[in-house]
Amino acid sequence: MRYLVTGGAGFIGSHVVLALCDAGHDVEVLDDLSTGHRAAIPEGVTFHEVDLLDAEATDAVLARGPWDGVLHFAARSLVAESMEDPLGYFRHNGMASLNLIQSCIVHKLRKFVFSSTAALFGGPDRAEAIDETASVIPGSPYGESKAQTERVLHWADRVHGLRSACMRYFNAAGADALGRAGEDHAPETHLIPLVIDAALGRRPALRVFGTDYPTPDGSCIRDYTHVADLAHAHLRVLARIEDRSVTYNIGNGLGYSNLDVIRAVERVTGRSVPWEPAPRRPGDPAVLVADPRRFHEDTGWAPRFRELEAIVETAWRWREAHPEGYGDRISA
């Protein structure tokens, strides 16, 4: 098959590109490299440096079809940043996605896989795992921009027959087990790489936001899913959208606290992690864990990296081998 991956130079997108290539598919990547890395794109994969806000350039790439499907990861994804620049998020996530979806319709594509988010569920705290029946109540412009794109896809299916899969996942983590790709954000906001950098002495003591939540150790609990498992979930869902659109919550179904992550990094690395308590961040729920049973029942997918230490180990190996990430940061 021949697939176009937008945001394929980013963290999750690059791992999906690897999984598609490993499965023998023909893959092309569209990315503006605003947060992604050219070095994350495998050799031999055709690359289009295009901003999805440029409707004409986007359409020119789609016109290179036929395509068997589009997998859409290109987006801004920082909740705090979206609270400071909500209109920017609606532009970069909403308008950009609209341009892409419009081009897919024009060029008669029939499969669209959308990288959605657990940020859709920004409502009251809940102790139980979140399934697909949970109310969509975004707590940020980031979550709202993803929710709006899901609705656009709903109508694109009803009116134009564009089948889509909305993949709502929680916390992607880890790195390719063969070391071909990993996590490299600037700034880094994800907990596991931050804890690893604290263990390496590359950053000051880690701040744990909230140690008085109603959880066993007082810190927030989250669902961490290995990025390679997420990549294979996207491959599995392509077969599900032959004749209908679907929406799934994707995760491990296991909750690990912030302090669990610190202890796991210490065990894997053999190093002490300096950390200090900090006040809660507004809007952070105590527990955020996926219920992935529907996806498992429909596709047979199950994460291979279920234990936190296994996830941390791949992230640690990547960071050890790539202390400066992909090494393509431009110094000021």
From TrEMBL:
Pfam families: Epimerase. Its cofactor is NAD(+). The keyword NAD applies. It catalyses: UDP-alpha-D-glucose = UDP-alpha-D-galactose. Pathway: Carbohydrate metabolism; galactose metabolism. Its EC number is 5.1.3.2. One of its GO terms (biological process) is galactose catabolic process via UDP-galactose, Leloir pathway. One of its GO terms (molecular function) is UDP-glucose 4-epimerase activity. It is an enzyme of class 5 (isomerase). CDD domains: UDP_G4E_1_SDR_e (cd05247). Residues 4-251 form the NAD-dependent epimerase/dehydratase domain. Keywords: Carbohydrate metabolism, Isomerase, NAD. NCBIfam families: galE. Belongs to the NAD(P)-dependent epimerase/dehydratase family. Homodimer. This is UDP-glucose 4-epimerase.
